[in-house]
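Q: Hi! First time doing this. I have a protein sequence and I read that you can turn it into a structure. Is that right? Here it is:
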Amino acid sequence: MRPLDVRIAPRVLDRRTKLRQFLPPAVMILGICLLAGLAFVITQRMTELREAPGDNLTWTLSQVEVDVLVLMDETLLAQQRNTVDPADIRRRFNNLYSRTSTLREAPVFAQMRQDPTFLSQLETLERCLEKLAVIIDSPDDVLVQRLPEVVEELLRIREDAHAIALTGIGLRSQYSDAERASLAGLLLTAAFTSLALILFLVFVLLVIRRQYHEHKETTEEVNRANARIKSIFDVSLDAIVVANDDGVILEFNSAAEQVFGFTSEEAIGQEMSELIIPHHLRDAHKAGMERFNRTKEPHLVGKGRIEVTALRKSGEEFPVEISIGMSTDHRGTIFVSYLRDITKRLAAEDSLKTARDEALAAERAKSNFLAVMSHEMRTPLNGIFGTLELLGNSDVDDKQRGYLDIAKRSGDILLHHVNDVLDLSRIDAGKMDLVEDSIDLEAFFRDAVATNEATADAQSNMLELQLGVMPESRVMMDEQRLRQIVYNLISNALKFTKDGKVTVRAATDQTDTGERWLRFDVEDTGVGIHPDEQQHVFDRFYTQERSYDRFASGAGLGLSISKQLVEMMGGQITLKSIPSKGSVFSVSVPFEPDLAPHDSHSVTAPNLDASPLRDVEILLVEDNEINRLIVHEMLRSNGLVVHEAHNGQQAVELASQQRYAAILMDVSMPVMNGVDATHAIRGSQGPNQHTRIIGLTAHALAEEQARFLDAGMDRCLNKPVSQEMLVDALLDVVQGAAAPQAPDADGVPVDLLAEETILGLEDLLPAERLHRVVADYMREVDALIAHLPALLEQDDLGEVAACVHKCIGSSGMIGAEMFQKDLRNLETAAKSGQKPQLPGLVAAVETAWPQTQAALRARVLTPRS
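A: Yes, that's right. Below is the predicted 3D structure, encoded as structure tokens:
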């Protein structure tokens, strides 16, 4: 094998040498250019100083005062002689007015007009002249009669004219001193630059002396590097092919011989396109080489691993993975290609892709099933629960009310199963997050047991709570998920126990390492679980009794979800059971104490007063006749006036004709869905462009509801909706619209933020995480406002709408509703191409943001005592 070309190794060294060669001349040229520039600026400044119109400025300033005095003298003299010449007085006034206009408009006085004192004096003089202009422009007889007023006004402005002259002359003197000082600074800079250039030349001479010794060391280093590369080249497991910029092979290692079947003697000196490139790719390869030699711009070099097809000596085409490097010096360019036969790997990847596609198809089918089930089951459930609620509010006898209770419990069970399946979907998708909240453990367990006492009584069971050591302060845990675990275990125990006892034991302890644990057991005296089945009780869709005469119903998801939630919380759940004697489920989960202060009193939700809703007109958009009838009746019974639309298109048409206090919008509808209808209403200029839109949806997944809010809805209510949910949501709309803007304890207007949204965030997120979310939101809006002026200058309305749209959804989620409306107005104008309105809307956003930012800091980020 021929020795490797030395050009491969010294690439970095060549760059370093070139830098040393070109740096000194570059610095010297830069210094000379800098000196030339300074000389030009100095010459220009000296010329300006010689030609400065200082005398003319001084004369003009003084002449204003002279014109005032001349006009006053001429007027007084004309009065004394009783020989008034109106034309002469007007001419004198025009001279004064013209001189004052020169001070206001002439570019030579622009710098003086920036001085507050001069500008104030000039404005005072101009106001007086405006008054005089009215008199001067009046008919001659009126002018003669009002000459005393002219004299009186001139006496008043005489001092102002004098002050203007003095101020202007003083400012001119200051500007002249500053110009001379600037010129002196330039001269000093030129001197220092010359000195620095001389010192650099001395330094260059010293550097040149060292270069001879460094050149010697560089040559030795290149030789050593060449030897190392030759060793790597020979033992590489990948095929290495080195070619020049004409496509001629220069090097061909032993691995390349094995891959392609050619010996190095056969390959070296041959063109790559005729040797190892398939016939159908040769024209493209030659065109690429010609393009590189013409433009010197490589297309594949440095692009990482690329999969292409190569050709063996036998004529077989096969896939290879290639990575190309390039080295260039004064002798030309060489390309180093690393190739690997990937035939076996691609076959394995094809098998994996097939398996992956099948798994993804199954996952998509599952996701589609869950989404369809969520929507299709929640929609009829809304009708069932709404009808039961309306029937419960009517006059029914005890027997009928018993039937209603049975139907309600059955519906609750069905809704519970739907929610379990959705929880399962969220866990599988990794979209279920734990949200720590401050809870009182003792009160929590007492409430959990009290809530299930009615169920226990129905089974003739005794439900007992035994509390051990409980922390004196509140603790930080995910209350919703802990409640779900406890309720599932108690419900499961009561379901398989009849005429027995269920005991809930709870206590906390602390390990030697300082970890704090909550441990609770749910023990029952029910049927128990056979040893062969105990290993399956936490499996999905597993039920202990699968015969036709089973006495306990269930989908077999509660225990599986409970186990996964416990493990997400960092704990564990275990089971001990004896058939026919009962079971004990034991749970251990870690917790941290809540060190933040809390109010000692609890807050209970007041009964809703629907009287503010009387005669309020709303629009109900719902395609399902049953749901529409039920919701209409719920609203009408609370005094609202309900207008109906059966699809999104009808909703858009009605919204363009009359303003409503709120719009209740279904999502899945024929003709036009609720999302598109919301977009259309928000993008219109109609009376409901800013009306609150409340989604009524059976789509319960969080990512779906986030999309609805991003489309312009203000909030979403999950089906089935109750009368209380509807009244509460509409009261929030009506009372929020009528509330006056008054400062709170921190002096911040309360209607800048949606208090209900803030409270919801505080319940949902720990304080530290909430602060981080609000801070990220503030940075997002700051970046938007800083970017908006540039977008307006570029006249890129599409980008304006896109950037603003990103902040609209987050503003609603964070509770900044007033600011969200300003952003939505701006987005609508940008989308509809209303260019004249954009500057004003951007100004409104820029004005509203500091107030909203202050409100968020005071309400969320400021610690409260």
